Input
Amino acid sequence: MTETANHSRRPTPFWKKFNFSQAFKQAPWRSQIQLVGLFLLGLVIVMLVAGIYLSISGQAAEAGLETFNLSYERRSLERTIADTKAQLALITSSSVMEQRATAMGFEPVDPTNVVYVVVPGYTGRQTAILAPPPGITETQGAVVKNEYRESLWDWLFQGINRLSTSVRGTS
Output
């Protein structure tokens, strides 16, 4: 004699164990409104994330451009200073100073008639070093630093990579 089994082979889902039942099925238009609302909520979240990303990227780009402009201004000022130093060197050269002295009425002095006075503690005029010593080369750094060229996604993935390597390293 064979008996028929009353139970199925599948386990019962957890929500059926609590005997929750709805009195009636929702109207189709309510389900559609809920789906549209969930879609719009997801869209708003995506738009907020995109807006924050654009804001941060814009600030980073602005800081990069400001850094570039300040670097350009610094190089321009350095050229102006170098030009001024070169003009000062030309004006104070011995030939120009001699011409100016004769134009003002000074006459060359006989070295036998000169009296030298020694002043204790006076070291004299310091020599100007206008160029670096030979063998030392000055290298220009990057105009825009790498920190300003990094996008938010690069920064986020670097953080995730650091986190995953630290988790892997401890286990």
About this structure: The helical segments are 14-17, 28-91, 94-103, 146-149, 152-170. The longest helix spans residues 28-91. The two ends are 60 Å apart (CA to CA).
